[in-house]
Each structure stands twice: as structure tokens, then as C-alpha cells.
Write a structure and sequence with these properties.
about 300 residues, alpha/beta, Transcription Regulator spoIIAA, 2 domains, eight-stranded mixed β-sheet, two-stranded antiparallel sheet, 11 helices, globular, binds iron/sulfur cluster
Length: about 300
């Protein structure tokens, strides 16, 4: 069966990358809030991956295009700055380890000037690998992994069917750090609903402190039509927090999380208000900005609903 390229879903900071699909879907497709919910995982044939790398190298070096190669390859290549490659899809680290290594070796061989390779990874994928294996990937320029903690509260993780505990995500992040690979961790404001809001924010701050990632990003819960979470919201089983309650959660996290050196941001388009800074040094400034906007309580200071995105 021919591999169907996934849509490009990537961290905001990786917008200039070349997007190389190794998989489509997610191996843990049970998270009730996620647009990957229920989507079957497809692994791409390694020979097909190599063909794309060959075509990309030919295009980069000599500007040549091949009729049998997907036009998407050239569309992405045209926007590429030649530095970083992002492996698609939702958890490229699930790609069988020997094949993953071979794909990265081939990428390095054909495009030796690549600076860094990044990917999303589930904690489960990471925990299946040893630190030595992760170091082998690091030597092949895997330089950053994006990992979803979503919540530090195990009750919330259970309710949303994340299939992992906060302690396991902490362990996974520490393992990646031990291999010398950068970590970027996301959390979702509002994932605990109205009832679990404070506990979710405090537990998330605690888990973030324990894992101490290089980057941490907050997203805000957005209902995706067709997901169980959306149905629960419609039936009243799950109650969304208000925009200002999401800022209160953000404030709780920024106030309570203790990092050694972490770039923390809420710049993602799903958020109602953006703060960013390096923690701990910018904590006071960020706390002040959030406290002021919460105190003011003016909806006009928030990102309007129609400008929010996933
Ligand atoms: S592991 Fe991540 S990508 Fe996969 S379903 Fe859960 S939230 Fe979505």
C-alpha cells in the first residue's frame, strides 16, 4: 500500500524545517482531546524514505525535480532554509530503531550540511530506548525531542487516556537529557476541566520542575470536533475553563515551577495571552504580566476566539 503523506503538524519554532515523514498517525492514538484520536499508525517503507532523501538532495544540489516524486517534497524544499529537518508524524521515534538509525545515517550521508534533526516523541517511545541508543541518535544529529506531558496530574492523564503517568514522562525527559538531546515539553491549560483546574496546574508545575526541560510550552485546551472530549463538553461531562481561568493556571505554573534554565512560553496560537521568558530569571516579570492582566479582567486584552488555532 502506498504511504500517504501526513499533514504537516509541527512545533511553531520548527517552521523553517524540511518535514520528512517516517510515519503517519500516532502509536498512542487514544488521547481523548487530540486530533490524532483513533487514527491508525502507518510506518513508511524505509526505501521510500530514502527515495525522498535522494530527491531532496538532488533538488538542493542541482535544482532538479523528478516526475515520480510527490510535488509536496519540492513545495516543502522551496521553503526550507537548509538547516533543520523535522521527522513527521506525531511520534516518529516509534519507527523501528535499526530503520530509524539507517534513515538518519542516509540523511547525513546525502545532506551532510544539516544542522539538527527534531521530532515529536511519546514518553512510551522514549522509555523503550536505552540512553545508549538515544546517544547513537544524537550522534546522527537528532538534537531535540518534543514531548507532551499535558498534565502532571495522573487522574487527568488517566481521564484523557494518555496511557502514561507523570512520573513516566519525567523519567523519559531525564533519559533524553542524559543522552544530550534537547527537550521541549508541552502542557495543556484547562485539560483538568473546571473542577480539576487548580490541582492540574499545581501538579503540572511539580512535574515540570522534576523534569527540568530545556523548553516548556503551554497550550490551551481547544475542543476538536469528533473527539470524545468534544462530546463530553457537549454533554456537560467536561467543563471547559474560562479564558481568565486559563491565565490563572498559567500563573500557577509559572509561579510554582522551578527550573534551572528553561525557556518557557505561551506563544502557541491556542492561548489567550502570550508570555515568554527564561526561567528562573524572568519569573518576576512574567508573574507580574499575568497578575496584571488577570486583575484587569478585560476580555479585549485577550486573543479573540476567531484568532485561536490548534
Ligand atoms: S500521544 Fe500525542 S499525538 Fe498521540 S494521541 Fe496522544 S496527544 Fe495525540
Amino acid at each position: 500500500m502506498q504511504f500517504e503523506r501526513p499533514d504537516i503538524i509541527r512545533p511553531p519554532s520548527e517552521w523553517r524545517d524540511y518535514f520528512l515523514p517516517l510515519t503517519r498517525g500516532c502509536s498512542n492514538n487514544t488521547c481523548t482531546f487530540c486530533n490524532r484520536w483513533g487514527e491508525k499508525l502507518h510506518l513508511r517503507d524505509l526505501e521510500d524514505v530514502k527515495k525522498e532523501i535522494d530527491a531532496l538532495a538532488l533538488y538542493v544540489r542541482r535544482g532538479l525535480t523528478l516526475p515520480e516524486i510527490s510535488p509536496m517534497v519540492y513545495a516543502v524544499a522551496q521553503e526550507w532554509d537548509g538547516n533543520d529537518v523535522f521527522l513527521l508524524d506525531s511520534d516518529a521515534l516509534v519507527y523501528p530503531f535499526p530503520k530509524l538509525k539507517e534513515a538518519l545515517e542516509y540523511l547525513n550521508l546525502k545532506l551532510p550540511d544539516i544542522r539538527r534533526i527534531g521530532a515529536y516523541a511519546t514518553a512510551q517511545d522514549i522509555l523503550r530506548r536505552t540512553v545508549e541508543e538515544l546517544k547513537e541518535l544524537k550522534a546522527l544529529k537528532l538534537g531535540i525531542l518534543y514531548i507532551g506531558l499535558e498534565s502532571g496530574d495522573d487522574d487527568v492523564l488517566k481521564k484523557v487516556c494518555k496511557n502514561v503517568t507523570a512520573a513516566q514522562v519525567v523519567e523519559a525527559v531525564k533519559k533524553v537529557k542524559a543522552a544530550g538531546i534537547l527537550t521541549s515539553v508541552t502542557v495543556i491549560l484547562g485539560l483538568g476541566g473546571k473542577e480539576g483546574s487548580t490541582r492540574h496546574a499545581l501538579a503540572t508545575a511539580k512535574a515540570l520542575s522534576e523534569m527540568d526541560p530545556d523548553y516548556a510550552g503551554a497550550l490551551t485546551m481547544t475542543l476538536v470536533p469528533g473527539t470524545p472530549m468534544c462530546d463530553d463538553a457537549a454533554s456537560g461531562k467536561f467543563q471547559l475553563i474560562t479564558p481568565f481561568e486559563s491565565l490563572q493556571e498559567l500563573l500557577t505554573i509559572v509561579k510554582n515551577a522551578n527550573f534551572s534554565n528553561c525557556f518557557f512560553s505561551s506563544m502557541h496560537a491556542s492561548n489567550y495571552f502570550s508570555v515568554r521568558g527564561t526561567l528562573p530569571q524572568d519569573k518576576e516579570k512574567m508573574v507580574k504580566a499575568l497578575e496584571q492582566i488577570i486583575k484587569k479582567g478585560d476580555p479585549n486584552t485577550l486573543r479573540p476566539e476567531f484568532l485561536r488555532g490548534l
